[in-house]
Specification:
253 residues, mainly alpha, 86% helix, elongated
Amino acid sequence: MQNWLKNAVLDVQEYVNLQIATFKGIFSRPYYFRDIVEQFESIGIGSLTVVLLAGFFTGAVLALQTGITLDQFGARPFVGRLVAASMVKELGPVLTGLMLAGRIGSGIAAELGSMVVTDQINALRTLGTDPVRKLVVPRVLAGIFMTPVLTVIANTVGILGGWIIAVYQLRVAGSLYWTSVIDGLYLQDAWMGLIKPFCLGFAIVTIGCHVGLRTKGGTQGVGRATTNAVVASSVAVIAVDLFVTQLLIGLLY
């Protein structure tokens, strides 16, 4: 038990130290613009397909389920309001975060872990290159700025998926659906849906980098690091979502 607590405290300490080094790398030279662009493409465009599919089917099934429930109260025309509010405020950011935790968190941990066990990180240090500036900073910047973009896309296709189900299965007029969507969204909801992804993206990428850089034990260690990164990132998405939601409700509503 004592060793476990010691290792946990050491893990948190190294995570905090990594974030301090990352922030220093973001606001000081040198910058590796080529690596930054590559990570924006990898995290943003590379994750587009899975985010589109997850957002569309989530919006569709949400409209289907809520439409059946609203029928009990004679409120089927309000399905658009419920789908839009749910996607923008909660489901869009969280589902996008979970998709990125599975795709990006594992990828970063595996990539950096492989570099650690093959001594590529030590080679960078030998050449006078800071591994945090070269490897971590581009990924953190891409995670912070691309997660909100992907979330907006997921929200949009989710609402479109809800519209398809509402019109063709629930027999709700399309104009009525979009009017309900507009009436059901407020400026505070949009802010909540945009602020959350910044925090979620930061948590996912920094955890993946931290776990990857702490990899030990050869190829088996890389496998363990990948699993740990996905689990930790997924739990962090749910936990960060709770705390950020509580904070934003107090500030915005």
